[in-house]
Design goal:
Strand content: under 5%
InterPro entries: ARM-like, ARM-type_fold, HEAT_type_2, PBS_lyase_HEAT
Number of helices: 14
Protein name: HEAT repeat domain-containing protein
Shape: elongated
Helix content: 55-70%
Order of helices and strands: HHHHHHHHHHHHHH
Largest sheet: none
GO molecular function, one term: oxidoreductase activity
């Protein structure tokens, strides 16, 4: 599937064929290092601002999110803040965005999750950058988050991850996120994903194609190709409303007793 993905990306998407991959990675690493340096410089002022505006109630969790000595505490504190009654306040957005530059992937994953719940316009591009990570869990979190954060800047990274990511969960989430983009490149990438070795990816791609076109044609790439040729510019005329999938934890013991 990965070889097919690269071929489709070259022929259909026009990406991933030119050289210079090492140079791009070096440039991205240098940019990330600059972002981390700038973030550390901004931390004291942001911490003081948050504590002054929100009071002492969430102070412990907020301080924990700035604890540079303990990544586990930072990510746990960030998740606590995002889930709290303060989590959706505009004052919190700079904190979530700041921690997208954290050197620890688990902290960046927590920041991505927070932005999926509370993000604003422009955050799709910030989250899409995390799809470049070497950490599979972070890429999965980013792809999931982009189901909730629309933005054209996210399309190309999602196409790339759908066709080339080694992690099946990330490919599934990318396929689901692409259902919100009625574009030919998204359609063709989803059609290519119908031959993925993992059936969960195939099912997600077929579901997104159904959303984009309003048709149910199963998992045969040829059927979708025929529809594309038949419908032409009207391919997306019958698109269904996009409804992002929401993952919920299974109920615990008492939840099952109460029928929740």
């Amino acid at each position: 599937m990965r070889g097919i993905g690269t071929l489709v990306a070259c022929l259909v998407l026009g990406s991933g064929c030119a050289g210079g991959g090492a140079e791009k990675r070096d440039a991205a690493a240098a940019a990330a290092a600059r972002d981390r340096t700038e973030a550390r410089t901004a931390e004291p002022a942001l911490l003081a601002q948050l504590l002054a505006s929100l009071g002492e109630d969430p102070a412990e969790a907020i301080r924990g999110a700035f604890d540079r000595t303990d990544a586990d505490r930072r990510q746990a504190s960030l998740r606590e803040v995002a889930a709290s009654r303060y989590g959706d306040r505009p004052a919190m957005l700079p904190l979530y965005r700041l921690l997208l530059t954290d050197p620890d992937a688990s902290v960046r994953a927590a920041a991505v999750s927070a932005l999926a719940r509370h993000g604003a316009a422009g955050d799709a591009a910030r989250v899409a950058e995390q799809l470049r990570s070497d950490d599979a869990f972070l890429r999965w979190e980013a792809a999931k988050a982009l189901r909730h954060l629309p933005g054209e800047a996210a399309v190309a990274p999602l196409l790339d991850r759908l066709l080339n990511d080694e992690d099946a969960g990330t490919r599934v989430a990318a396929a689901e996120a692409l259902a919100r983009y009625p574009r030919r490149d998204a359609f063709e990438a989803l059609r290519a994903a119908l031959v993925d070795a993992d059936y969960a990816v195939v099912a997600a791609a077929a579901g997104s194609l159904e959303t984009l076109t309003g048709r149910s044609l199963g998992t045969a790439p040829e059927a979708w190709g025929e529809l594309s040729a038949e419908r032409g510019d009207a391919l997306f005329a019958d698109a269904r409303p996009y409804e992002p999938r929401v993952y919920r934890e299974p109920p615990g013991f008492f939840g099952r007793l109460l029928g929740r």
